[in-house]
Design a protein that fits this description.
This protein is α/β, with parallel strands linked by helices and about 280 residues long. The protein has 7 helices and 9 strands; from the N terminus they run αβαβαβαβββαββααβ. It has a domain of about 190 residues: Alpha/beta knot, CATH 3.40.1280.30. The strands form 2 sheets. A 7-stranded parallel beta sheet has the order 3-2-1-6-4-7-5, sandwiched between helices. It has a two-stranded antiparallel sheet with strand order 8-9. Strand 1, helix 2 and strand 2 form a beta-alpha-beta unit. The longest helix is centred in the N-terminal third of the chain and has 65 residues. It is an enzyme of class 2 (transferase).
Length: about 280
C-alpha cells in the first residue's frame, strides 16, 4: 500500500511540474504574440501614414501641374549622376526611373531649370522607356559618359555635389554659374552617402539641403524617421522653389514628407542668414 501511495505522490509531483512548464510556455507564447501584434500595429500605422503622404503629394503635384509655368529668377543647372544605377536592385532601379519621370515634369513646369543626365546606359534607358511613358522623347540632354568625361577644364570647378550626409555643409545659396550634381541613387538599405564619397574622391565640394537649419523635430509621440534622404525629384523641386522664393522654409516644407517628423515654421527671424540651429 505504501508503494502505491509513493507512486501516486510522485505522479502528482510530475503533473504539477508539467502544469508549471505548460503555464511558462503559455506565458512565453503570450509575450511573443503580444510583441508580434505590437510590431504589426506599428507596421500598419506606418503603411497608413505613407499612403496618406502619397495621396497628399499626388494632390499637391496635380495642383501644381495645373498652375502656369513658373519662371525661375536665375537659371538652375542640374546634373543627375546615374553611375550608381548598376549598384541597385531591380526595385530600386524602377523607383529611380519613376523619379526621373517626375523630374521631367518639373523641367516642363519651371522655366530656367536645365537638367542633364550623365552615365545613362542603354540598358537603363530601355528600362526607363518601359516604366515612364515618353521617356525617349524627353527633351533634355543625356550622356552615356560621366560628368567628368563630358565637362572639361575650368567648368569642372562648377560641379557642386548634393548629399544627405550630415557631415556636409548646408547649402544656403544657389548660383547660376554652378552645376548641382545629384546622385541617381535609390538606396533602401541606408548604407550611407555614396555621393559624398564620390565628391571627396574627385576633389569637389559637397553640400546638403539645410533641413536641420530651417526646421525643428516633432517631439510628439509618433513613428518619425527624421531621415533627410529625399527622392531625386524632391531635391530638384526644393532647389527650384528656393530659386523662385529665396526662402528655404517654404521650399523644404513643400517637399519634405510629414512622416520624417521635421516641422518647418515660418517666422520673421527664420532666414538663410539666421538658420534655426545657429
Amino acid at each position: 500500500m505504501l508503494d502505491v501511495e509513493r507512486i501516486l505522490a510522485e505522479f502528482a509531483e510530475i503533473t504539477v511540474e508539467e502544469d508549471r512548464c505548460s503555464k511558462k510556455n503559455e506565458n512565453r507564447l503570450s509575450k511573443q504574440e503580444k510583441a508580434a501584434r505590437y510590431f504589426e500595429k506599428i507596421k500598419q500605422s506606418r503603411l497608413a501614414k505613407r499612403a496618406e503622404e502619397r495621396k497628399r503629394q499626388r494632390t499637391a503635384r496635380k495642383r501644381r501641374n495645373r498652375e502656369e509655368k513658373i519662371v525661375l529668377k536665375e537659371e538652375l543647372n542640374i546634373a543627375i549622376d546615374l553611375g550608381f544605377e548598376v549598384q541597385m536592385n531591380k526595385k530600386e532601379s524602377t523607383h529611380l526611373a519613376r523619379q526621373l519621370g517626375r523630374i521631367w515634369g518639373l523641367q516642363k513646369r519651371y522655366q530656367g531649370l536645365k537638367t542633364q543626365l550623365f552615365g545613362l546606359t542603354p540598358d537603363f534607358s530601355e528600362n526607363c522607356q518601359k516604366i515612364v511613358t515618353g521617356f525617349d522623347k524627353f527633351d533634355w540632354k543625356t550622356h552615356d559618359k560621366t560628368a567628368h568625361d563630358v565637362i572639361r577644364g575650368s567648368d569642372l570647378d562648377k560641379l557642386i555635389y548634393l548629399t544627405p550626409d550630415a557631415d556636409a555643409e548646408p547649402l544656403l545659396e544657389l548660383s547660376k554659374d554652378n552645376i548641382y550634381v545629384i546622385g541617381g541613387i535609390v538606396d533602401e538599405t541606408g548604407v550611407g552617402s555614396r555621393t559624398k564619397m564620390k565628391a571627396d574622391t574627385s576633389g569637389h565640394k559637397s553640400y546638403r539641403l539645410p533641413i536641420s537649419e530651417f526646421s525643428r523635430r516633432n517631439t510628439e509621440k509618433g513613428n518619425w524617421t527624421f531621415n533627410q534622404m529625399l527622392a531625386l525629384n524632391q531635391v530638384v523641386e526644393a532647389l527650384c522653389l528656393f530659386s523662385q522664393t529665396s526662402d528655404w522654409t517654404t521650399a523644404l516644407a513643400t517637399v519634405v514628407p510629414a512622416r520624417t517628423g521635421f516641422i518647418f515654421e515660418k517666422d520673421d527671424q527664420n532666414s538663410e542668414e539666421n538658420p534655426k540651429n545657429e
